[in-house]
Amino acid sequence: MSQEFELSYGEIDYTVLGSLRRPSSGYWLLVGALVLGVVAGAICWAYQIAVGIGAGGQNIPVAWGTYLINFVFWVGIAHSGTLISAILHLFRAGWRNPIARAAETMTVFAVSIAGLFPFIHLGRVWLVYYMLPYPNQRNLWPNFQSPLVFDMVAISTYLTVSSLFWYTGLLPDLAVVRDRAEGLRRKIFTVLSLGWTGKHEQWRHYTRGYLFFAALATPLVVSVHSVVSWDFALSVVPGWHSTIFAPYFVAGAIHSGLAMVLTLMIPLRKVFNFERIVTVDVLENVAKTIIFTGLIVGYAYGVEYFLAWYSSNIVEQEAFRWRAMGAYSLEFWIMVVCNSLVPLLFFIKRIRRSIAWLFGISLLVNVGMWYERFVIIIGGVAHGFIPHAWGLYRPSLIEYGIMLGSFSLFFLLFVLFVKHFPSISMTEMKETIQEEAAHAG
Amino acid sequence: MPADKYVLGLFTSEDKTVSAMQAMSEAPWQIERVHSPIPSERILDSLAVKKSRLGYFTLAGGIVGFFAGLALAVFTATRWHLIVWGKPVVAWIPFFIVGFEFTILFSVLANVLGLIMLSDLPDLNWSEHYDPRCSGEHFGILARCPDGRQQELAEFFRTQGGEPRLFEEN
């Protein structure tokens, strides 16, 4: 029996509400540093808008650089939140309860950050409304045969659904905070909790609604990253045009998202003394899932090579030879080692129960997954069909600045959230205790 | 005729709450509502409430969404009337993807709308006959009794292992 079930309702409330106490100066220092990062990113973007999209390093043949890498990276990170909150909810996996809120929060912020990158990549960001299907004076309509338009629909649906799922899940906890707050905070939480009191009529509809949310979010999570993968797979570029891209991208997205959950939860449990709620057992279960997704990702890397060899297509074969031995071979091997080999260390129980190892490996998987997107996106178009059209790409300083800004914004939003809202679902933790007591009894 | 009064019985466990609710069915008191910090199937079963009708909202949203997505894709394609990648102008397979995404989007929007409507949210009178402990460690049974019999009802809650809270207003 894990120690989390020895907790009482009161202890859960006390521990989680304790995280909302007045922040220390160290917290504000961290917020200040992250704000600086966001400002740096904003300045770089403003510079790019002023001088043109050429401020980034993207050019023919590599027209999709870090902006698309980061877009895919953040959409991928967003996927685990829905996996943990929706899919594991349907499977009644109780261990997901302590981390579900943080994972859902991560999802909402990550998909918001992802949504910024197509805007950034547009250059003339004010023309973004061209993508929207509405009657205009030029009679221009988006063409829904394009995977890029599927993507716009899928990502905006995903942002809407994950935000509503997140807020619905928050409602009972917002009421807990409201009932224990004073002054301005009480007023804010009174508005946010919409008058939730946990009466049976509310729970009757809530449990049903939450179940439908989970049931609808599950196919959505699979569809969204499949659609993202079709941005590549529906083209004829060697290395992109592949039927395995959809499951490969979905598995990779969950792999990176789970790693990010560990990266976020490990410092969170330490800073807010959540050790009795987010137990080592919970983190170990995340690690075990990472082994599974890491094996799928490794299998996909292998299958890509098999398909290139088995196809007898010399262009495809050259693309994959170059991927492992060409100009971006370092990035390729970082990808393989970090995503497929390093997670195998979690087969050793001592490692997957060690906080330091868990944190270190989660960082490496994050790095590896970023490079996976680099290898796919850059590697495909840099070394296409025609040798005279080959060309290399390196991100410019402006792109690095925007990337710094995006990471800073993500962590800033997360840090602000965890200090002002319950970062662990008190209601679901209490449910876990209740269910365990019922089973024990 | 004097108006009925309310007494809230606060309990520290689901077991005691359900047991008190069962005892109330043989007593002259009427349960107004039950508060709990967690969703409880046992409480809902004791109250013999029907299954939520929320699913109809979700289903309706999904059906509308699917056809709305498909219709939007067909409409925009027929405005262009261009052959793209050798596909027909009205290409059902790619349009199905748009229909699928709209199905999920509209289902979820209808789900939220249904939840708000059926649960009477936002509830501006939420604090009426409510005890903040009900969102923390306590379960609460709000019961109604004729004026002058509040102490009897409070005593009933005490015998069931609860802590009564009397509300003087109606």
How is the topology of this model organized?
The complex is a heterodimer of chains A (441) and B (170).
Chain A: H1 9-18, H2 25-51, H3 66-90, H4 97-122, H5 147-180, H6 183-192, H7 200-233, H8 245-271, H9 280-311, H10 314-325, H11 329-341, H12 349-352, H13 355-382, H14 397-420, H15 426-440
Helix pairs in contact in A: 1-15, 2-14, 3-4, 3-7, 3-8, 3-13, 4-5, 4-8, 4-14, 5-6, 5-7, 7-8, 8-9, 8-13, 9-10, 9-11, 10-11, 11-13
Chain B: E1 5-11, H1 14-24, E2 30-35, H2 41-47, H3 54-80, H4 92-118, E3 139-145, H5 150-159, E4 163-167
Antiparallel strand pairs in B: 1-3, 1-4, 2-3
Helix pairs in contact in B: 1-2, 3-4
| Secondary structure: helix percent of chain B | 40-55%
Number of helices of chain B: 5
What's the multimeric state?
Answer: heterodimer
Shape of chain A: globular
Radius of gyration of chain B: 25 Å
Strand content bin of chain B? 5-15%
Distance linking N and C termini of chain A: 14 Å
Q: What structural class is derived from the secondary structure elements of chain B? A: alpha+beta
Q: Note the beta-strand portion of chain A.
A: under 5%
Mean pLDDT of chain B: 91
- Percent of residues in helices of chain A comes to over 70%
Class derived from helix and strand content of chain A: mainly alpha
Largest interface: A-B, 56 and 63 residues
Q: Give the tally of β-strands of chain A.
A: 0
